[in-house]
Amino acid sequence: MGIPARDLAAALEPFAGQVYFSPECHENYSSLGFRASPAKMGDVALPDGPAYFCSRGSVLGQVPGEVVSAAFGVFNPAVVVPAVAHGWTLTDAATIERARTDGAVGQLRRILGDEPEGLVRALDLLHEANTGLRPEGHALFAGLLSQELPGSALGDSWRLADRLREYRGDSHIAAWVSSGFDATEIGLISELYWGLPMRTYVRSRAWSAEDLDAAEARLVERGLIADGAFTDQGRAARERVEILTDRACQPIVDNLGPHRGELVRILSGWSAAIREAGGYPRSGPHDLAKLVNHD
Fold this sequence. Notes:
Radius of gyration: 19 Å
Distance between the termini: 10 Å
Strand order of the largest sheet: 1-2
Shape: globular
Largest sheet: 2 strands, antiparallel
Order of helices and strands: HHEEHHHHHHHHHEEHHHH
Oligomer: single chain
């Protein structure tokens, strides 16, 4: 049996997160002067770095890269800060936020149609899920609260799902920071938690080999990993981070009550279609987290 908060996060992830791989978004960003998508992973178009940092960070306002780096949590500031500085020479926050929203909704319409099955019900449930969520300590969620809903049922559903995605992300950062990890350390032990070799996924966060060497040495010294694998203490410490994240997201689960499974089923269907169409990678951390043995 799955953990409710994680099951919901996994179901909504491709629906909300497809914004980062949307060709419509990439085209919009290119029209503002950013690079086109630099590469593909299978059928999925990967984002340009400066466009990614500025578009996602745009909900915070016209802020410097240091603020974007702090809000995102896991990326190397040495890469984020100049990328954001460059991005703000090309556009402003309001303009790229509109490009982000238009591109996200555009891809959803292309793949799912204007009125995918379950849309009216999902929109009602996503409103319920967001009801009363508090913004303190949730920078990106709060930034999305400052943005109006796009005005269509599909667009509004996406924005509400994106709010839930960022709410969990903000909660996760609070959980690992309060547990005594830094960005490089949580990146390495999360790979082990997902069943991946160390220094695979974390490299997408732009940390140097030296940064990761130092982080691994600290984790070994704390008794959390040995010989490139978890110790029992390390596995328990990483699972506690996820448990703390789940607890922070319990208000979402409570809001949905007995209807959570219904929303998960609708979103899972949409997310599967998005993946099949190349709008989001075939698998990701949310999927791997669901498969972790919680016994």
